[in-house]
Amino acid sequence: MRRRVASALSVLLLAVGGVQGGRGAWIYAKAELAQVLLRRSWAATLAGRERVRPWPWADAWPVARIIFPDGDAIVLAGASGRNLAFAPGHLDGTALPGASGTCVIAGHRDTHFAVLENLVEGDPVRLEDATGNLTVYRVTATAVVDESETGVLAESVGPTVVLITCWPFDAVSPGGPLRYVVWAESVAR
Q1: Are residues 67 and 128 in contact, defined by beta-carbon separation less than 8 angstroms?
Q2: pLDDT tens-digit series, residues 161-174
Q3: Which tens digit of pLDDT belongs to each residue from 14-59?
Q4: Verdict on whether the full-model pTM lies above 0.85
Q5: Could you tell me which of 69, 60, 68, 56 has the C-alpha nearest to residue 87?
Q6: Which CATH superfamily is domain 2-186 in?
Q7: Of 14, 20, 59, 102, whose CB neighbour count within 10 A is largest?
Q8: Which DSSP symbol is given to 61?
């Protein structure tokens, strides 16, 4: 009898572990699959089409491609939680990538914006806009701030990009009140 209970308990624990592991892997798989579909819609955008949805039920479209020293990602219009599940998002009401002013892009710390942890002052960050123009930025500062600090969104005169993700990078639970912010200013093209 004990042996059956122990076997049943082992099977139950393996099943629970498999489900939990699968849920964790799904986040990464969804982010990678979305980038494949987003790259297709980005190619169509660069070819002159506007607001190309990456999948039929999407309510967002690519507005930029962000290029880091360690990789790149397509950026969606809007920084809603739904959009951030698939890609970094451009915060509505901020400057468009490459335009004068402050362009704010948010992303998840455990997928597309995990690279922010390794950026240091002077590192390049490039933004390709919907016309194919590339703006090169250099990281000027990083900081950990409370999510209520709206001063990080302050308008700038020249092209500036502000990248925001949750902090700490190795947190077990998602969310939390702290944000990791990277500021970068444009350099001559």
Answers
A1: yes
A2: 999 999 998 888 77
A3: 665 655 656 667 777 777 788 899 999 999 999 999 999 999 999 9
A4: no
A5: 60
A6: Sortase (2.40.260.10)
A7: 102
A8: -
